[in-house]
């Protein structure tokens, strides 16, 4: 995570900081910044250690990239859900559904099936 900062941008920020702060206060501010960076590093190391203590050695086996929420595209998830074939019900469950349907006489709703050649309908006003 470099936040789009290149060496040239960091150099420009440093030059502007020197001009704004001035040479008198620059050593004191650099020392404060170094202390802040050290404390942040210690905080991160302590947090990692605490997580390792609480979760145990399994924390090393976790693939953190799979848990990244940025990889989930709701449009792709819905498209895949609409294109997948419905799974047939188990025989016992199908018998229970058929007897329940016969007693209540409720209409059975089926999900439309789409093949890979024709995409599902798209509604411009729904998005």
Automatic annotation (TrEMBL):
Which compartments is it annotated to reside in?
Membrane
* Top-level lineage group: Bacteria
Question: Which residues lie within the region annotated Disordered?
Answer: 108-127
UniProt entry tagged with the keyword Nucleotide-binding = no
Q: Which residues form a coiled coil?
A: none
Sorted keywords for this record are: Membrane, Protein transport, Translocation, Transmembrane, Transmembrane helix, Transport
**GO biological process annotation, one example:** protein transport
Instruction: Please name the Pfam families in this protein's record.
Output: TatA_B_E
- Carries keyword Kinase? no
A GO-annotated cellular component: membrane
**Comp. bias (Pro residues):** 118-127
Q: How does it sit in the membrane?
A: Single-pass membrane protein
Q: What protein is this chain from?
A: Sec-independent protein translocase TatB
Which species does the entry assign this protein to?
A: Microbacterium bovistercoris
